[in-house]
Structure formats: structure tokens, C-alpha cells
Amino acid sequence: MKRMDEGSVAMEKEESQEYRLLEAYCRRRELCSSLNTVVDCLADIADSAPFAEGNLKNEDSSPEQLGQCIKQNKVLQQQLQTGFSYSLFERVIATLQGCLSVGSAPPGASANEETRMRRKQIASAFEVTSRLSAVELIPKRRVLSFGKHFLHQHHSDWVQQHGGWDEVFSGEEID
Question: How many domains are contained in the chain?
């Protein structure tokens, strides 16, 4: 398995489809405007997740407030600025997906259930990336690069096998 670090992130070409989708998703979340079907579908799935309802955060918290809390804790601030690695990013996503019960479909699940679970996993990865990119202390480009790598490593093959991003997130509900 390829190890992802800051040096290789900077060396990678940033214009992959995953990176462009992450940028569009973050812009959509910031601007609250419709950009395209895939991004809208991802946002709808993420909005229906428990963390969108405040289950994993204080009701008052926002990326700005989280940034303020981090700024008050100098040790945490330094750790995030210097130690925010791909492995930490990957663990954050895995932990949140576990808390949200957004794991893999159970053995013997139907193709529709597998697709629904994969869409939720992908949408949660977009949402976590979006929220982390809004924290000012972590360079947005690094977070987007980590998100791109995560999507490529964990989901791109499946997306391509199912017709690509437009097909997987065509906006149609999966029964």
C-alpha cells in the first residue's frame, strides 16, 4: 500500500476528478448553491447523516468556533499545524464513519444496499473533508489532497466499475 505524506501530496497532480469534485463540494457547502448533480446528491446524502443533525458535535459548534477553540489550545494548534498527516486524516474518517454506522453493507446484502452504503461512505468522506478544510489552522490544499487520495484509494475503483461519478450519483434514489 502506498504511503501518503505531505511531500507526495505536493508532488501529485491536483487536477484529478476526485480533487475537482472535492473542491466543488467544499464550494457548494460554503456558498449553499447548486453546482451539479453529483455534488447535490453527495450533499443530500451527507445532510441526512446523523452528524448533520448535531449528534457528534455541540449544537453551537461551527468550523469557525472549532478553529477558535483550537487557537486557544496552543499544544493542539501546533500538533494540527505540524502533525496533520494522511494517516490521521484516514483515521478521522474511519472513526466518524464507525460512529455514524456508515460501514460496509452486510454479507449477502443486495446490490442496492451495497450501492446505498457506498454512497453514504463516499458522502461522509466528502463531508469530513469539507469540515476539516474549513478549519483555518489546517491548510485547505492539504486537506483536499488527503481527501482526494482517500477517495481514490478507497472508492475510485468501485465508482468506475459502476459507471463513474455521474452514474453513481445521478440523483436517483436507491430503493
Answer: 1
Strand runs labelled E in the chain: none
Rounded Cα–Cα distance for residues 63 and 134 (Å) = 6
Evaluate whether residue 170 is within a structural domain.
no
Domain that holds residue 25: 6-165
Residue holding cell 445532510?
Answer: 47
Report the alpha-carbon distance of residue 137 to residue 140 in Å, rounded: 9
Q: Which three cell numbers stand for residue 9?
A: 501530496
| 95-120 per-position pLDDT tens digit | 877 776 666 667 787 888 888 888 98
Identity of the residue numbered 2:
K
Is residue 45 scored above 80 in pLDDT?
Answer: no
**Domain CATH code at residue 70:** 1.10.437
Label residue 55 exposed, middle or buried (CB < 10 Å: 0-12, 13-18, 19+). exposed
No. of H helices and E strands in the chain? 10, 0
> Does any domain span residue 27?
yes
